[in-house]
Structures are given as C-alpha cells and as structure tokens.
Q: What sequence folds into this?
C-alpha cells in the first residue's frame, strides 16, 4: 500500500514538530498536488503551531486499529479563504499498531445519517452499536453501503456520572447481511478530535476494567 490512499482532501490529521515526544496539534488536509499537500494551520485548543519554511514535522493519521506516521517538510504558506501550510510529500511512512484501539463488544444506542445534500439537514436513524474502538464502530444499519460511503454518527458515552456526547463522521469499510433481517456496517472514524478519541478509549478501558473485577 502507498501513502496516497491516506493523504486525501478533508482527511483529519495530527501534526507535531517534536519527533521524539510528539505534542499533537489538530489539522485537516485541504488540497493535494504533485509533490506536496496543503493543511489548515494546526491547533491545540486555542494555540496554533507556528512553522517556518524548512521545518520538519511528523504527521499522524488515525486509522481503524492503527496509525500512519510520516515525516514532511514545511514548504511555505498559501492563503485561500483561510491560511494554509504546504507540506512535502513523504518518502515513506510507518504503520503503527495502536493497542489503545482495543475493540469493545457492547450494545448501546447510536444515531447515524447519510451526508445530506447542500442546504438539507441530516436525517438520523436510531440503531445499535455492536462493538467500538478509538478508530471506529461496528453497528446495525438499514441498508448495505458501498465501501467509502460517508456517514454521520452521534452517540453518548457514560464516564463516571457524566454523559459525553460524541458527534463524528466516518466512512464505511464494509457492510453486509449478518442474518436474514439484519445488516451490519464497520465504519472508520474520519473526523475525530483528540478529545473525542480519548473519551472513547477511556470508556472502553473503564468497561474492560469492570468486567475483569472478581464478582
């Protein structure tokens, strides 16, 4: 596999200037050209990542159950409607298996919708989760979707006494019938913040810890 399949417009990424102990800033790919790609100015909460021409950065793309990481150089700036950084195309990449993306079998409510046409509101359908990880979810759906179909999702996770709402987008990895009347879809999160991912991972680890306690 080549890195081209992951460097795509609207792909959420994380960027760090520190190679040894990454301090991640959230960004998004806005344009892809030969030899370079453009990203929004990376932010960590309200703090932007200031880069100068020639600075080397590590780029992180979260996948389902793994991360893609590569090194790029900052080539310059461009201003469209918003300021953008230009980064060099990577020579190589590493695929890192991520243990924190443990998959938790769980039954809980989820609402999903197909991406609406411009000017229309999404029509959410209530359904059930089958399992979840920090990288994606497997859930019951009404229809069989082609791989790559974009979906909007929202669900609530209970952490202690606090309910956290997660609203994310994703793309279908695969879907198909699991019985005569039920259809399942595996969906990879494509637009998820560090905070949302941390909440999901904490929820999973809490549930796993409770299940391991002696009764």
A:
């Amino acid at each position: 596999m080549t890195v081209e399949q992951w460097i795509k417009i609207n792909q959420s990424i994380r960027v760090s200037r520190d190679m040894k102990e990454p301090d991640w800033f959230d960004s998004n790919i806005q344009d892809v050209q030969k030899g370079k790609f453009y990203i929004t100015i990376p932010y960590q909460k309200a703090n932007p990542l200031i880069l100068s021409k020639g600075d080397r950065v590590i780029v992180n793309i979260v996948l389902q159950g793994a991360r893609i990481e590569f090194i790029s150089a900052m080539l310059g700036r461009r201003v469209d409607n918003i300021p953008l950084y230009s980064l060099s195309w990577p020579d190589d990449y590493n695929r890192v298996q991520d243990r924190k993306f443990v998959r938790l079998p769980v039954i809980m409510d989820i609402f999903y919708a197909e991406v609406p046409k411009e000017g229309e509101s999404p029509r959410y359908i209530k359904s059930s989760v089958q399992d979840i990880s920090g990288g994606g979810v497997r859930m019951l759906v009404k229809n069989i979707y082609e791989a790559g179909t974009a979906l909007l999702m929202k669900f609530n996770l209970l952490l202690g006494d606090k309910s956290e709402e997660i609203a994310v987008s994703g793309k279908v990895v695969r879907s198909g019938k699991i019985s005569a009347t039920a259809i399942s879809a595996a969906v990879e999160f494509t637009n998820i913040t560090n905070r949302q991912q941390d909440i999901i991972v904490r929820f999973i680890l809490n549930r796993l810890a409770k299940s391991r306690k002696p009764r």
Notes: Helices lie at 194-212. DSSP finds one helix and 15 strands in the chain. The chain has two domains: 3-97, 104-212. Residues 7 and 71 are 13 Å apart (CA to CA).
